[in-house]
């Protein structure tokens, strides 16, 4: 996207005081482009991943194993945002952490580009680690461009930044997916590395426009804390190395020795984090009450993401095997379906924002709880809709591409109802003591949802069976109705948050 740069009078010392980016500090252009290229690499690789895993010319795995790997990978990305934020706060500072994260992601994609099954999983791990480091810290730097939370440009800046995410997500499957599916899988993964490389280059060249305190470590570790952290890390790493060496040399190693522990961590850690915060006796009664209400939103969000993120695995694998991927006789790569969501987000997000403002002026805007429940019902409805193409293929026919587009459309509307509301309610209901950690807690809902999908796949559940799809759809709809039915109780727990 071309940067619209105009002269603006700003106080001296403000980042980007000479020029602006759509009326925002010039540093926003740096972060916008960095995030756009990072999302280009991430979503391009993600669009290829399940298809490569099941392809005869790829890994040749079963659909269940491919879904498990894909789900565990996604859960790891979001699980690692919390330690990623901690690393930026305590070790390197946001700016250096993002630069390191970009380099790790690029190395991960280059490792994926190697034609070796042995290095493939190492590449996935590196991309997940780098994404966790980057995701938490780049958003922090966007906020640092503005003069505190009351700066009137702040919300607009995050909106522009969000558009960068969706631009990268839109173009990635069209370019990386086309090359990966049509030319060579590993060349597609290499293109993802090129995208991240451009992001790192853009970030390094434009870092002079960022806020000066983005390179400051907010709360550096003391010498004693560094020593303790290193000892604990070495201990756990040693235990893991010994355990896997024993399993490997005894001839019992299978992929599940990696997948099962990671899946269980994706379920256990979110629970432990919520329990730790809820049992903190230093929280006052109002904060305790808000955390009780937040648990409702957290569980509901986990159900939502469990279904929503199958758009990249269950639906993609179904499209690859059983859909007529053409429009008016024109064939297109299966990975292109992953561009439907970002283009719909870009088209509909401004409409939703305008609609909520119009309703708010009339005093008719739905409450947070109603929006949340509606998002759940819609994601459930998308899987009830999925039953139609499943039934078509049972008769030996191919399902039309528009069935899948309709499913993605329904899920996107649900996302616009639930995701922005979830982010907002997380910041509003966070106890003061955990204000900087709660955004990571919100991402743990995604981790829990994806880990549940991974566990089902590892257990041998065929997620493309009509009975399973109907069960998941029913779960989401029932959860949405439950949130709505108990809205009075949840609203009372929320206190002054609306």
Automatic annotation (TrEMBL):
The record's section on InterPro entries has: Dipep/tripep_permease (IPR005279), MFS_trans_sf (IPR036259), MFS_Transporters (IPR050171), POT_fam (IPR000109), PTR2_symporter_CS (IPR018456)
Question: Where is the protein situated, by its record's location annotation?
Answer: Cell membrane; Membrane
Q: Which residues cross the membrane?
A: 43-62, 68-86, 98-114, 159-179, 185-205, 257-277, 289-308, 336-357, 369-388, 400-418, 439-461, 467-486
Q: Predominant location of this chain?
A: membrane
Which keywords accompany this UniProt record?
A: Cell membrane, Membrane, Transmembrane, Transmembrane helix, Transport
Topology relative to the lipid bilayer, per the entry, is: Multi-pass membrane protein
Database matches in PANTHER family: PROTON-DEPENDENT OLIGOPEPTIDE FAMILY TRANSPORT PROTEIN, RESISTANCE PROTEIN MDTM, PUTATIVE-RELATED-RELATED
UniProt similarity note? Belongs to the major facilitator superfamily. Proton-dependent oligopeptide transporter (POT/PTR) (TC 2.A.17) family.
Q: What is this protein called?
A: Oligopeptide:H+ symporter
Gene source species: Streptomyces pratens
Q: What is the lineage of its organism?
A: Bacteria, Bacillati, Actinomycetota, Actinomycetes, Kitasatosporales
